[in-house]
Amino acid sequence: MQVLFLNRLNDEWLQKMEQMKNKYPHVSFKTRQDGTLDDLLRSAHVIVTGRLSAEHIHKAENLRLIIVPMAGVNALDWHAIREKKIEVCNCHSNAFAVAERAIALALALLGRVVEYDRDLRYGVWHGYAVRGGEQDYWTSLQRKRVCIVGFGHIGQNLARLLEPFSCEIVAVKRSAPKVKDRVTSDLDWAIETSDVIFITLPLTKETKNLFNRERLFKMKGKFLINVSRGELLDEEALFESLRDGVLAGAAIDTWYVYPSSEKECVLPSRFPFNTLRNVVMSPHVGGYCPEASRGLMNETFEILEKYILTGELTNRVDPEWEY
């Protein structure tokens, strides 16, 4: 068996690989530096990566399993995966960190932390010191009705973190009955009856543009926090709903435009979200902390080791649902 690592590898990853080489001498462990990509793909039975094109999948004629060292699997070519009947597993050990980031973003947004920080750096005060009126109020998260759209690993961690705030939580799950209850598949009812909406869904063909113009413009006075993927929300409609004061505010960690090797400094949208005071912007770092990164690495090797020993799959991704 040959295992090919195409993800970014730091010293910890390389140390883990050396341990696996010593433990399983009959398995070949390769990195991008061990040959031409075409040759490495042709001989790989398992590939560890978060991104794989149809061209690369078809070149990997012996490929049986892709292990994605993170939760998101939307950068894989699923048509080619289904065509070749390749198995996919992903990792969820960063869920606690993404949930924590979502809470931080919510508190920053409702508490107007970033907005007031920016002002005070220029000597502009708010609140008691300048006898500010109601326009200077911030909003408490305490006892708010919160809708968590997507109640998987991140959503469940988020619900636990919200417990000290005495929030009333409504969880939206695809598999739940369409009832007006604490766990439901009735997204519109859940949004309508909530004050704060967290989006923690994966990006699939079913969830893309789930928050379209019609849905966003019904969210008058609500706060939205997105730690999933930008493409779940209509980019232009999201901007306009914030600019026009339909949404009370949004905290956004996942975007529409990303840096490239040619252009590292780039705004994250075609629209000027950076000009809006009711937006907290975060550069897609929900799980970007040492604890989460180490957890994802360990989980990747646990999935791989179990597959080597037994052929069994952990965290298998459904190829039809793409999550």
From TrEMBL:
The keyword Hydrolase does not apply. InterPro entries: D-isomer_2-hydroxyacid_DH (IPR050223), D-isomer_2_OHA_DH_cat_dom (IPR006139), D-isomer_DH_NAD-bd (IPR006140), NAD(P)-bd_dom_sf (IPR036291). Pfam families: 2-Hacid_dh, 2-Hacid_dh_C. Residues 3-317 form the D-isomer specific 2-hydroxyacid dehydrogenase catalytic domain. GO terms for molecular function: glyoxylate reductase (NADPH) activity; hydroxypyruvate reductase [NAD(P)H] activity; NAD binding. Keywords: NAD, Oxidoreductase. The keyword Phosphoprotein does not apply. This is Hydroxyacid dehydrogenase. Belongs to the D-isomer specific 2-hydroxyacid dehydrogenase family. Residues 103-286 form the D-isomer specific 2-hydroxyacid dehydrogenase NAD-binding domain. One of its GO terms (cellular component) is cytosol. It comes from Pseudothermotoga hypogea.
